[in-house]
UniProtKB/TrEMBL annotation:
The gene is cheB. It is found in: Cytoplasm. It comes from the Bacteria. The keyword Coiled coil does not apply. Belongs to the CheB family. This is Protein-glutamate methylesterase/protein-glutamine glutaminase. It is an enzyme of class 3 (hydrolase). The lineage of its organism: Bacteria, Pseudomonadati, Pseudomonadota, Alphaproteobacteria, Hyphomicrobiales. Transmembrane segments: none annotated.
Length: 388
């Protein structure tokens, strides 16, 4: 599996490096992650600890910005240490790390409901170069983008300036004092007059919670049209997410199966490790899965789903881009808009990371940029014929 080459991050010299606490009972994993972090110009290892108990006892002395917290550890496991760490440092960014088992997937979802910012799956073996490279890329990106919200200014006085375009590109989750006002000035397209016949949703970091909030509010839409979702997530985790979406929406929700027919009243979730597309199958519409290379570093990726839908529903599509890192969904969103469809993006204030929705918004393809708690009602109105 190939990994795209990326440019090194642009470092804003006004800020201290992010202080990262690595908590894992494996000395190999601790050493590997620590070496990766120390090689980054905008990060530093604040501590490398073996157990959750060590982390809880030492957090006030270490004062980290970000913690990488293993789930399975002696003395005090990750899920037990999590609330104690947050009680001692409320704004600590915690990223749960676990292997791809159903139990660990369930624990990771519980951890996010308890305040963890995100999770990352650890490869079964870091000896596999491709697995280690993907793990490294994903981990460093999560630390950088999630940690941007808690970065500390250096003590030396510096002018209050707006970050350069290069710095914004390197850290799209960085929020300047002018960003909210700038967001309000982004060009928004008028909604197309075409009634949508499908709802497509793309999400990444922070997406599981956002998706559960959204699907709980759009039951009337799910009953009318098929809903297809791509969430950046590995196998097993997508199985659990589908079960959570079914409970939240009170509608059938499951991972898409290659060749199955797409029908209204059902939520189809791209399975981890496969790209999901919608394709014509005679007079019907079906799910197509493929094992192609990652797109935008992701598999599943949002762009393949968005672009494929045009051949099926033409311009009768509403696409929603929720919180997430990177720009996945922007290119596919451009194609949807060019075909006559509409795109809605989650706003920056309610996003865990304003990467994906920010890319769509800044590309000028959105007809609305809304906080999460307003997207559901807007979607319902659009599928009821409101075009305002």
């Amino acid at each position: 599996m190939s990994v795209d080459v990326i440019s090194p991050p642009v470092v804003d010299s006004r800020y201290e490096p992010l202080r990262v606490m690595v908590v894992d009972d494996s000395v190999v994993i601790r050493g590997l992650i620590s070496r990766w972090i120390e090689a980054e110009p905008d990060m530093a290892v604040a501590a490398s600890l073996r157990t959750g108990l060590d982390a809880v006892n030492q957090i006030e002395r270490i004062n980290p910005d970000v913690a990488i917290l293993d789930i399975e550890m002696p003395e005090l496991d990750g899920i037990s240490a999590l609330p104690q760490l947050l009680a001692k440092k409320r704004n600590l960014i915690i990223i749960m790390a676990s292997t791809l088992t159903r139990r660990n997937a369930e624990i990771s979802f519980k951890a996010m409901s308890l305040g963890a910012a995100d999770y990352i799956p650890k490869p079964e073996s870091t000896r596999e170069i491709s697995a280690a490279d993907i793990f490294k890329h994903d981990l460093l990106q999560k630390i950088r983008h999630l940690g941007a919200k808690v970065r500390r200014l250096k003590s030396a006085t510096t002018p209050s300036i707006v970050p350069s375009p290069a710095a914004r590109e390197a850290a799209p989750s960085f929020r300047s004092v002018t960003s909210i006002a700038a967001q309000a000035q982004l060009v928004k397209r008028p909604f197309s007059a075409t009634m949508p016949r499908a709802l497509l949703i793309g999400s990444s970091t922070g997406g599981p919670q956002a998706l559960m909030t959204l699907v709980a509010e759009i039951g009337a839409v799910i009953d009318k049209v098929p809903v297809l979702i791509t969430q950046h997530m590995p196998p097993t985790f997508t199985t659990i997410l589908a079960e959570h979406l079914a409970r939240a929406s009170k509608r059938p929700a499951r991972e898409g199966v290659d060749g199955e027919l797409v029908k209204a009243g059902q939520i189809y979730l791209a399975p981890g490790g496969k790209h999901m597309r919608a394709v014509k199958q005679g007079a019907n519409i079906a799910i197509a899965l493929d094992d192609g290379p990652p797109v935008n570093f992701c598999k599943p990726a949002v762009d393949p789903l968005f672009t494929s839908a045009i051949d099926v529903w033409h311009g009768a599509i509403l696409a929603v881009v929720l919180t997430g890192m990177g720009s996945d969904g922007m290119r596919g969103g451009k194609d949807i808009v060019a075909a006559g469809g509409n795109v809605i993006a989650q706003d920056e204030a309610s996003s865990v990371v304003w990467g994906m929705p920010g890319a769509a918004a800044n590309a000028g393809i959105c007809s609305a940029i809304l906080p999460l708690n307003q997207i559901g009602s807007k979607v319902v109105r659009l599928f009821s014929g409101d075009r305002s």
